[in-house]
Amino acid sequence: MEKCAGVQRNMTKKVIGILLLAVVIYFGYNYAVDASTPYYTIKGSNKMNGTTAQIGPSGDPKYKKIVYINDQYIAVTLTGFIYQSIDGQTWKEVYRDTGRNSLYDVVYGNGYYLAIGNIVVKSFDGEHWAPKDNNLTNSLTEVAFGNGVFVGNNSQRILTSVDGAMWGSKESAWHLYLFRDIAFGDGKFVAIASFGIYHWSKDGYEWSEAKVDKQLDGHSIGKALKSISYGNGIFVCVSDDPDRDGGSMIYLSKDGVKWKRAARFSGTPERVEVSPEGLIAVIGKKLILVSRDGSKWASYRTEGEYYVDVAIVKDRMLFMKATGEIVEHLLHE
């Protein structure tokens, strides 16, 4: 009986601890958004026309990420494949992991490419790849490079590396909230999470925390901020259901610290990408949103399986499905 009572007391302490942490998350953060700025309400949609191509075999629908770096496209899959293309239409397989380990993202820094997941693969030219020994114990799902370091996240922790091999963090505690995405711009890293929380850092080691918008309070785990990108002097991030009525919000920031509401739309966002020229594309499960500068938006509906990522080069957008199908769309005013 005493043992059962002790177990019950311990469980009660854990429940109280979780509730207190939730209260801290709810009330303990400064809100960064400029709520006084009018935002654009996106209505209606057009059919997106475009030409199609196929990256690789479509029988294994696990294509995850497509990027355009150093005049070439690179795509990675959750089954350990890497594909490369110069024109975005003709692709070739350049790496195949024998253990079919997952790759989630790819980035360039310090003179080489890194593809990351539950393995790390390195290349100096984007065509010849080799696995790199590392100390990771959990998969990295997103990665960014800036100020001489690579910074990635594995949902509940941010990790930093100078070479892609040794990863570490000054934070020892895992977070209750979940990290979703990370971007580098304006001399700093910005990592977004659930509950509307974001972290920012100049060196990838020391981090500050805040909340984007009070409207994001009260959501369950897994909601709130979903994706972030940087281009042409602006950060863009997207959130789930900030108004609790089926709508979602797009936020803009010049410095990654002070945010404003830019646009509201009906739908579920998945990814956002900003080109170096400032063209913004938001991918949802049945929609695509496009804007030149975040002030006005065009809405497009998708047919069939939704897109998982997009690579943007000037006015050319390559939308990728999980099956490896590419739909190329040229934006015309």
TrEMBL record:
<keyword id="KW-0812">Transmembrane</keyword>
<dbReference type="InterPro" id="IPR036278">
    <property type="entry name" value="Sialidase_sf"/>
</dbReference>
<keyword id="KW-0472">Membrane</keyword>
<feature type="transmembrane region" description="Helical">
    <location>
        <begin position="15"/>
        <end position="33"/>
    </location>
</feature>
<protein>
    <recommendedName>
        <fullName>DUF6242 domain-containing protein</fullName>
    </recommendedName>
</protein>
<feature type="domain" description="DUF6242">
    <location>
        <begin position="34"/>
        <end position="266"/>
    </location>
</feature>
<keyword id="KW-1133">Transmembrane helix</keyword>
<dbReference type="InterPro" id="IPR058667">
    <property type="entry name" value="DUF6242_C"/>
</dbReference>
<dbReference type="Pfam" id="PF25852">
    <property type="entry name" value="DUF6242_C"/>
</dbReference>
